[in-house]
Design a protein that fits this description.
- This is Activator of osmoprotectant transporter ProP.
- The protein is built from six helices and two strands; from the N terminus they run H-H-H-H-H-E-E-H.
- The chain is mainly α.
- The chain has two domains: 91 residues, Orthogonal Bundle (Fertility Inhibition Protein O, Chain: A, Domain 1); 35 residues.
- The chain has a two-stranded antiparallel sheet with strand order 1-2.
Length: 138
């Protein structure tokens, strides 16, 4: 995304390229970014979208450990991750992992159900194709 690229270029310590893990951002960093919106040639909507994308996903959520340092735009300490924020990030990551596992299991469940239905279908077809001696007219 072009917006994140601009943030990475202007604020490389807060928005490093290929971060693993990402660094927790200070609470209120959006307002700090708004102060630079004109300089960055970005709208409030673009900045909001960039922050949503940046702060979503495993690399960000795994960085949100209780007591971890939050960074401001210059990469300096801007507070610490609270216990509540750490718990919330853990729940978000667990939810993501559950969705991934559910999606991975769905094709397997469908294949198992399909394979289970195949013998039944074959058996029904076989019974229909071969008349029962009791149902055959003499």
């Amino acid at each position: 995304m072009l917006t994140i690229g601009k943030l990475q270029k202007r604020f490389p310590k807060a928005f490093p390229k290929n971060p693993s893990p990402k660094l927790p951002l200070k609470i209120g960093i959006f307002e700090d970014l708004l102060a630079h919106a004109t300089e960055l040639a970005l709208t409030e909507t673009e900045l909001r979208a960039a922050i949503k994308i940046w702060c979503r996903g495993s690399r960000y959520w795994t960085s949100m450990v209780e007591g971890a340092i939050r960074v401001d735009l210059s990469g300096e300490e801007g507070g610490r991750v609270s216990p509540e924020d750490g718990v919330r990030a853990t729940k978000l990551e667990e939810g993501r992992l559950a969705r991934v596992a559910s999606k991975a299991a769905a094709p397997e469940k469908a294949a198992v159900a399909e394979n289970a239905a195949v013998p039944e279908a074959a058996e029904v077809a076989e019974r229909a194709a071969v008349p029962d001696s009791e149902n055959v007219a003499d």
